[in-house]
Amino acid sequence: MRRIVYLSTATKLMSDAELMDVLRVSRGNNTRDEVTGLLLYQGGNFIQLLEGKADAVATVYARVEKDPRHHSVLRMLDGESTERLFPDWSMAFRPAGGVTAQQRQEIAEFIAKAPQEAATTSGRRALRLVSSFVESMR
Ligand SMILES: Cc1cc2nc3c(=O)[nH]c(=O)nc-3n(C[C@H](O)[C@H](O)[C@H](O)COP(=O)(O)O)c2cc1C
């Protein structure tokens, strides 16, 4: 299986209705494609984990990457995985208000360090960040 975490910037601030629209389409497609993951929306940035069979993840990432609702898509982790972090979620979602103070801090640090760390994509910080949501989405 393949796991991708990327960071991107929303083209404009997203309303709740616009976010729900993204989620509705994503959940429909991802259920069909057996892709699971997590979407965070925080201060005009998206952080998304996509996980599943390698070809399915490649296809959905290629689609998402060129979506005009966001830009500056930076891959922060891209690797093999043996298990899914969010097996029960076609796309788990956390809006800005839905994170703990510590998660907010981790997200801020993740975004601040992204330009340097994207070049390496060892993805340790990205993995730690998305993993910190696993428990709370159960
Ligand atoms: C931040 C963000 C995350 C997205 N995540 C997904 C996703 O997980 N799965 C998906 O199919 N589409 C996702 N999309 C939407 C795709 O870019 C694209 O609009 C959609 O897949 C097209 O689906 P359709 O051909 O069924 O209309 C996302 C879009 C944005 C802006």
Describe, in plain words, how this protein is organized in 3D.
With 138 residues, the protein is an alpha+beta fold. The protein has a single domain (2-137), classed as Alpha-Beta Plaits (2-Layer Sandwich), CATH 3.30.70.100. The protein has helices spanning 16-33, 54-65, 101-117, 124-131; strands at 2-10, 36-42, 45-52, 70-80, 92-94. A 5-stranded mixed beta sheet has the order 4-1-3-2-5, sandwiched between helices. It is globular and about 35 Å long. It starts with a strand and ends in a 7-residue tail after the last helix. The mean pLDDT is 95. It binds flavin mononucleotide (FMN).
Give a short overview.
With 138 residues, this protein is an alpha+beta fold. The chain has helices spanning 16-33, 54-65, 101-117, 124-131, and strands at residues 2-10, 36-42, 45-52, 70-80, 92-94.
Number of domains: 1
Secondary-structure element pattern, one letter each: EHEEHEEHH
* Helical content (DSSP H or I, runs of 4+): 25-40%
Rg on CA atoms, Å: 14 Å
Number of strands: 5
Form type: globular
Provide the CATH architecture. 2-Layer Sandwich
Major beta sheet, strand line-up: 4-1-3-2-5
Mean pLDDT rating: 95
Provide the CATH top-level class. Answer: Alpha Beta
Question: Can you tell me the residue ranges where pLDDT is under 50 for at least 5 consecutive residues?
Answer: none
Strand content range: 25-35%
Q: What characterizes the major β-sheet?
A: 5 strands, mixed
* SS element count, helices: 4
Secondary-structure-derived class:
alpha+beta
CATH topology: Alpha-Beta Plaits
